[in-house]
DNA sequence: AATCACTATGTACGAACGTACGCATGATGT
DNA sequence: ACATCATGCGTACGTTCGTACATAGTGATT
């Protein structure tokens, strides 16, 4: 996402590091995914990015600022994929396929940390700035869906996507791609 | 849920307090709802229940134990309502109505703190005991739904319920009961 | 009434935290 | 070449936390 970090040994001697702020935001997302928002501290992020603690207060006004920027990056990334897939679809059938692909390939891919999304929801419940991030993201998803479906359907299928993703992620017995396809097609065809 | 607590002044003089453990678990749920799991500390719970700090270590082996018991109580409470509504339904149509009532009246009622459920999901991602609580709850919901619907439908509608509740709770423009009814009926009828 | 097991309480300690701040350093513009 | 200033760095302070523990009060049993 950003430029590679200087190696640990290099950092001990060299100091120049443009994009450090960017790397810190990415590091914050890693820490959130691994330890949760509760376990995300200045020190953990600094360790993950291999920068000294003092760097945190220089680049960010406080922990809130880091969290906001990190979650904004996360939401924007997912929303962009959402947009792209649905914009590429030309017909309603293609749009249905796009939704299925979104859930099975993008949202539930092993590399994608779904837990980040749930962490965002929880944090948003008590942080107005994060609530705004969440709502902007939801609005963007719905707008993308409305390229192909009427507003009511868009809203409903948006909720369905949410439920399918969440339940699949939380279950020891996750839904198969075929089951997800079945659920979405049942709703949209 | 439990017996009323002795008043603050009474506590200062008297000490006998059976059901204190129960009250502490309820207090923990209140604190989780207000401050989140991250802001839930021994001291906050003790303050909410108006007991001294030392009482926490006596009644619970650690913070994990309190959280587990609190979330177990939360999940059991919702699952019980779920069971009851679906057991009371005699026909498929009544079952559909029961599901609608569950979402609009029970899960989304102003008194019910939906944020507790999301907090549980996040905590469960990193706590095996809480993961077990979540999965037992999901299984119980699905079993209840299977009294009236085939397993595939049960699973899908369970996910739909999740998405509808979550989106309604997070949105500034929450879905109306009519919209929720529309979404569920579209799926089940 | 005496005893005892259980429950309740206040306090203390070490660890981890957010944040502030003074100093060092390297890039930049002249 | 040199001055300037944004950036990088180490450290320290005050706060809050989980937890332990010694002591004290209480209800039950005899």
From TrEMBL, chains A, B:
Highest rank taxon of the organism: Bacteria
Record's protein name: TetR family transcriptional regulator
Organism listed in the record: Actinoplanes flavus
Domain HTH tetR-type: 18-78
InterPro entries: Homeodomain-like_sf (IPR009057), HTH_TetR (IPR001647), Tet_transcr_reg_TetR-rel_C_sf (IPR036271), TetR_C_31 (IPR041583)
Compositional bias ranges of the Low complexity kind: 1-10
Keyword Cell cycle: no
Alphabetical UniProt keywords: DNA-binding, Transcription, Transcription regulation
Portion annotated as DNA-binding: 41-60
This protein's record includes keyword DNA repair: no
Chain residue ranges for the region called Disordered: 1-20
